[in-house]
Amino acid sequence: STAIIILGIAVIVVFVSDKRYMQFVWIAAAGAGMMALFLGMESYRLERIAIWKNPEAYEKGYQTIQGLYAIGSGGLFGRGFGESIQKLGFVPEAQNDMIFSIICEELGFVGATILMLVFLMLIWRFMVIAVHAPDLFGSLIAAGAMGHIAIQVILNVAVVTNTIPNTGITLPFISYGGTSVLFLLSEMGLVLAVSRWQSEKKCI
After folding, report:
1. Given phi > 0 = left and psi -120 to 50 = alpha, else beta, which region is 78?
2. Is the pLDDT of residue 203 over 80?
3. Which pLDDT belongs to residue 107?
4. DSSP H helices in the chain
5. pLDDT of 124-176, one tens digit each?
6. Are 155 and 1 a contacting pair, CB within 8 Å?
7. Which residues, in sequence order, are CB contacts of 156 under 8 Å at separation 6+?
8. Number of domains in the chain
9. Which of 2, 19, 33, 187 could form a disulfide with 145 if both were Cys (CB 3.0 to 4.6 A apart)?
């Protein structure tokens, strides 16, 4: 999962820095080929795909099934903040990778939607800062931070909802982990510095 995030950030940064967009078609084709080779090199990677397709048939699908139970039991408005049942030992790593399923259980579809809108607004603001940055370096900083958060949110939500095979990725700013929050806030600081520099340039 870390390799996917790093590769995604690299592709976004190259995309922003180069106006020749047709080359990314070949990059995508090569990436798909490398991904197929990467999955075939280790048996446990293919096992994850099999678990994703039919989690009830495998013991390792327990986490996915319990996460889906949590999402389903939340309904429209959820059980209430702090009232999750699945986090009491049923969902493994509920405070880390599977935190979104607990949010869905406690706050329901409405609460999860609001959280996604907050992330979407943050990503959109990063994109605006990247577009209006005074130089290419500022654009790359903002675009890289935007790509990091966007990819991580997409992967986490997709894994929890069993849309893609389990990759073990955390939800930015929400999952437990001080080091993760520290680096995410550092990225936020860099992007805000680019935004402030942009405002100062306009004033001059």
Report:
1. left
2. no
3. 92
4. 2-17, 23-41, 43-53, 62-74, 99-131, 136-160, 178-203
5. 999 999 988 888 888 999 999 999 999 999 999 999 998 888 887 889 999 88
6. yes
7. 97, 100, 169, 170, 171, 175
8. 1
9. 187
Provide the CB-side half-sphere exposure for 54 (13 A, CA): 3
The encoded tokens of residue 47 equal 């096992």
pLDDT score of 185: 92
Residue with tokens 């699945």: 86
The two tokens of residue 20 are 């020749």
| Alpha-carbon distances, residue 14 vs 23, 139, 147 (angstroms) | 11, 11, 12
In whole angstroms, give the CA distance from residue 190 to residue 40. Answer: 39
The contacts of residue 186 (CB under 8 Å, 6+ apart) are: none
Select from 159, 162, 161 the least CA-distant residue to 53. 162
Domain that holds residue 114: 2-203
CA distance 77 to 200: 44
pTM: 0.83
Cα 139 to chain center, whole Å?
21
84: left (phi over 0), alpha (psi -120 to 50) or beta: beta
Instruction: Map residue 151 onto helix, strand or coil.
Output: helix
Residues sharing a CB contact under 8 Å with residue 62, sequence separation 6 or more, in sequence order? 55, 92
